[in-house]
Design goal:
Chains A, B: InterPro entries: DPH1/DPH2, DPH1/DPH2_1, DPH1/DPH2_2, DPH1/DPH2_3, DPH1/DPH2_euk_archaea, Dph2_arc. The structure is a homodimer. With about 350 residues, chain A is of the alpha/beta class. Chain A has twelve helices and 13 strands. Helix content of chain A is about 30%, strand content about 20%. The interface between A and B is large, with 38 and 38 residues.
Amino acid sequence: MSQDATSEGDLRNTGMSLRHDREWDYELERIVEEVEERDASRVGLQFPEGLKRRGPAVADDLRALCDDDVTFMLSGQPCYGACDLDTYLMRRTDVFVHFGHSPMKESDKIIYVPLFSNVDPFPILEESLAELEGDEVGLVTTAQHMNRFEDMCDWLEERGYDVHTRRGDDRLSHEGQVLGCNYASADIDADQVLYVGGGKFHPLGLAMEHPDKKVVIADPVNNVVTIADTEKFMKQRYASVHKAMDAEKWGVIFCTKIGQGRMEIAEQIIADNDDAYLITMDEVTPDRLRNFDMDAFVNTGCPRITTDDGPRFHKPMLTPQEYRIAVGDEPLDALEFDTFHGTW
Amino acid sequence: MSQDATSEGDLRNTGMSLRHDREWDYELERIVEEVEERDASRVGLQFPEGLKRRGPAVADDLRALCDDDVTFMLSGQPCYGACDLDTYLMRRTDVFVHFGHSPMKESDKIIYVPLFSNVDPFPILEESLAELEGDEVGLVTTAQHMNRFEDMCDWLEERGYDVHTRRGDDRLSHEGQVLGCNYASADIDADQVLYVGGGKFHPLGLAMEHPDKKVVIADPVNNVVTIADTEKFMKQRYASVHKAMDAEKWGVIFCTKIGQGRMEIAEQIIADNDDAYLITMDEVTPDRLRNFDMDAFVNTGCPRITTDDGPRFHKPMLTPQEYRIAVGDEPLDALEFDTFHGTW
């Protein structure tokens, strides 16, 4: 892979160059065992967006290992997390396999198959040490790197760090794990948190949720160390709140995805505001909201749609707390990142 | 409204000019009665795409007429027919109101509120007579004009026509009604069918399903009389079948919308073809199919996505019969329009 001056880091021999021949362990034997044990005739397979393309090959492998009368069904629904199970397919199959995310809630019906990255995190961890101040540090990562979490802790401790880790709340399966909507694992007694993982999606949420902490990003996929900078996001949040302060008609979105529903919050807003309308949908997209002639929207579903995709919508979209600020129920300086807790 | 040379007809005093001040009868009293009778606390409202914008005002009117403790919820899901009920919202509300389509299946839970057009069909009917050959004519229309169907029959009979009408199958509520996917009401003993309604969506389907009949379109909304011409569509169908003849890997789409599922057809293809993969989804969109590395797709869901939106997909998309032609199980000249029968 060639390297140019605009890249974030040296991508040779790292995650980016491994991307196309990366091998995942789909735990076929475990799936086949469950299929046989339950005498299943219909098996649903759900992959996250980035791995959907692998689905047919996994189905082929499973077909070769199972009886001919077992039908494998691939979910074509968008999937952005364990919060986003294809419940239609789940209810209509005997075994439902969800790949790539750790369990948000255990269930007899669902087999969760985590997919662990084979990228070596230690070279970039080594590089990230230059950004750490003092020896107290929090450590968090995503589901893809959980298999190395203990090793990373040990590695840091061997180098003299006092590593703070925590298991978040019910929404999280593992100590040190973060989700796009939940950073409870970083509620630790240290002023800096080291995030190990690919991309900026998680560390930006982490930094918004913990604005008092320095968030050092050790990204083994893009082979780069950076400091999370939420300024652009925060400016957008304040701008959206300000724009929405003049809104008369509010669309209050209740997301119907199994792990993204906060009906109590939505119903409370409707009960308090005669100019608020409850709108239900699974995918929250600009096209769907354009159908409604509202001045602003409150999204009680996935907070990352609000913060990350907000500018793509034709009208300001706020989190529930931002709504309370916009209508004057809370002061502007109370603004916090919207997080999701619990399961469903 | 100004009129230019490119318009299809004279739009003054017709549907197009009425569009913005068109009044619909939402049958509020009937809804309120049902809400009170069932002591409902949650009421779901679902509108077709073109009328979603009216939803909040209808909710306002209903709120004014009902107790304060009744919560109205607007479906934000796309809706393209009575086949496309928001089952999530339906299951979670005490009363579920579906506007704008006639019932595909009666249910205690659902109140169907038809929305009848207030456009006068007779001026354009008068104009359409010049296109009729002989006095035997079939008559069909859509749900929006069903309230004038008897009047239209009488009007034609008064002018000496022998009007053939028929109620289709279970999928259709009314005599003379057509759906985008079902033209059984035109299985009549006449060589020409008069279609009264807006746009070309329905008459093109009608002409594809009945290639032996002349389909005269009397469009009171656009104030124009035309003859349905399926040539462009048919060329696209043959081109797609030809392109798909080389396909090795097939994605077989099962649509999870309540009235669009044909699982037996999908499972049969999977059983017969080792290189076919069953993919389930509700909305069938180019983005969703791009996630799968297939050579061609068979859509067992809504046939109009295949015929009308086909060219928007990155790979050829066929109807089930077109698939059988592409793999050599049927001859090319057997090609017929894909229709949907039954309810769910």
